[in-house]
Amino acid sequence: MSNKAVYTAVAERPTTFDDIRKAAERIAPYVHRTPVLTSSSLDERFGGQLFFKCENFQRIGAFKARGATNAVFSLDEERAGAGVATHSSGNHGAALALAASLRGIRSWIVVPTDAPVVKSESVRRLGANFVSCEPGLANREAALEKVLADTGAEMVHPYNDWRVIAGQGTAAMELLEDQPELDLLMTPVGGGGLLSGCAVAAKAMRRGIEVIGCEPAGADDAQRSFRSGELQAMPNPRTVADGLRGALGTRTFAVIRTLVDDIVTVSEDEIIAAMRLVWERLKIVIEPSCAVPVAALLSGAVRLDGRKAGIVLTGGNVDLDNLPWR
Amino acid sequence: MSNKAVYTAVAERPTTFDDIRKAAERIAPYVHRTPVLTSSSLDERFGGQLFFKCENFQRIGAFKARGATNAVFSLDEERAGAGVATHSSGNHGAALALAASLRGIRSWIVVPTDAPVVKSESVRRLGANFVSCEPGLANREAALEKVLADTGAEMVHPYNDWRVIAGQGTAAMELLEDQPELDLLMTPVGGGGLLSGCAVAAKAMRRGIEVIGCEPAGADDAQRSFRSGELQAMPNPRTVADGLRGALGTRTFAVIRTLVDDIVTVSEDEIIAAMRLVWERLKIVIEPSCAVPVAALLSGAVRLDGRKAGIVLTGGNVDLDNLPWR
Q1: What does the alpha-carbon distance between residue B40 and residue B145 come to, in Å, rounded to a whole number?
Q2: What ipTM does this complex have?
Q3: Rg of chain A over CA atoms, in angstroms?
Q4: Do domains B17-62+162-313 and B65-155 have the same CATH topology?
Q5: Which CATH architecture has domain B65-155?
Q6: Angle at B168 between CA B164 and CA B170, to 5 degrees
Q7: B317 to chain A, minimum CA–CA distance in Å?
Q8: CA B193 – CA B281 distance, rounded (Å)
Q9: Domain A17-62+162-313 is found in CATH 3.40.50.1100
Q10: Segment A85-100, tens digit of pLDDT
């Protein structure tokens, strides 16, 4: 399938595997090469072999450190000098704040008042300029516009940015370096930065690998976009997976419609059950968004049938006073 | 200091480092070599370098798999044929049930009705003969006596057994293989199986290493025994650290008084704060007992002063519906 029209519309060169390799070199001094965990009890339960890439152990507790760090360290001296800015209710804000502090430049993070406390506190701790705004995309964008106009900072979008997409793709690159014989790769999909970057890496590194995006049914714009071939809006997302409420962007959609094999959806109950299952069996802390691919196995939306599957566990920033099974 | 009298009293050869090396070979096919995690934020906070040996990722979710597996696979065919038995409110029961099923022999586990549900369910799932009894040491021992009389099974004590002590010591052996330059090793101490086995390994492998046992103030028999030089009882332990309510045994005390450098105690609030800190920073699930060495750092009972310290994170079996900070 050609997606030339989409690429032309954004008038830029989309991320290649070479960009991902360069991103990996660029960010190596600043982010962790995260471990890959396995679980014999989960392998038995799901009838295959699972390899969990633990981005919950990444700096700031999420894969977002990869993309933000690649974007910040891609800037030339002059643009970096003006600082960076974004709006975020979650891990991207902390990731950009960290990357900016590592480079020694300023950052402004617009954070809506309904952001999870654990995530907004992380932004404050990392020394960013914290800009509070009312909830809702329009308010967030208006507040960010004002910051950009006032400061001249460089906008780093949480996902619809080739530098960010290339950075996120390094997660799949590392996983396939450690486990070259994967038959299947699963990631959550919200805005699509992780899924698109990982799809580029996986399809370049492993012939015939299947790449599946996993999405909450209450925020199913990616599945609708993928199936219709047209970018669909997500006006009123309803899901406990707070990291997956965003909608695909033009760039992430362009990659996903070309390289991804399928997008499946799961219910809220399945997400919570999967989150708890990972805590109990892998003994690691993951956030709800992170559990969505495991939920797709629990629900039967994806079947392993003896295959080797990689799952990117995206993050572990969860409010321990408000666990979803309470 | 000589402890010949104590060794003579138990009339057996105490665990040597060679026993631990043999145990490591014996159990290697059945247990995990667990990873060692680090955290730059915790290193900064505590002023040193910390290496966490993650036995919460061990089979059955705790280091107890090591000792029980070594005991079960040390039995000759005839003794193994009669099966094994123990009483346990916690991880040792699941560990012995697993080891017996791996060897294909029968097991009987006496479990008091006040055992944590997460731990007793694990015993059931592993196919042991589950023998329920009323709480309290006397009831547990009486129920176990009856099982032993009825079945002829081999008793495998949770800690006061040289085979178990040697198995637990493999945790420190692996940690020092991975990080040979440790200045300090910290473990929790309840019955003392882990602390004594790890002390034998650490003192054999690393000249001058300091070994510190960490204990809840509400179950401080090990500290009192260590300081007085006489084995002290712990009639009424009160601590959230359910794995550390047991008292030292004759064998574990014999090793600890000789090889361990100090035993420190921590409060309940410090244990809970340390448990939460590990969940938040390391993104891993640990049980309260497991947090006690970190609590000793939080309280200042142990200071790193720039040193490299190994901590055995002992287990991750926690009831997710009853977290201690609720």
Answers
A1: 50
A2: 0.90
A3: 18
A4: yes
A5: 3-Layer(aba) Sandwich (3.40)
A6: 125
A7: 8
A8: 28
A9: yes
A10: 999 988 999 999 999 9
- At residue B313's C-alpha, the angle toward residues A29 and A46, to 5°, is 80
Q: Which residue of B has its CA nearest to A313?
A: B283
Any idea what DSSP says for residue B284? B
Cβ pair A91, A291 in contact under 8 A: no
What is the C-alpha to C-alpha distance for residues A54 and A316, in angstroms, rounded to an integer?
9
Partner B contacted by A117 (CB < 8 A): no
Residue B198, both tokens: 């790890």
Determine, for residues B325 and A325 on separate chains, whether the beta-carbon distance falls below 8 Å.
Answer: no
CB pairs under 8 A between A and B: 40
Domain ranges of chain A: 17-62+162-313, 65-155
Tokens encoding A187: 């990631």
Q: How far apart are CA A88 and CA A198, in angstroms?
A: 22
pTM attached to this predicted model: 0.92
pLDDT in tens, B117-156: 888 888 988 989 999 999 888 899 999 999 999 999 999 9
* Burial class (CB within 10 angstroms; exposed 0-12, middle 13-18, buried 19+) of A27: buried
The β-bridge partners of A224 are none
CA distance A115 to A95: 15
* CB B24, CB A4: distance < 8 Å: no
Q: Which residues of B touch A325 (CB under 8 A)?
A: 320-321
Distance of residue B287 Cα from the nearest chain A Cα, in angstroms? 10
Contact between B284 and A280 using a beta-carbon 8 Å cutoff: no
In B, minimum Cα distance to A54 occurs at B283
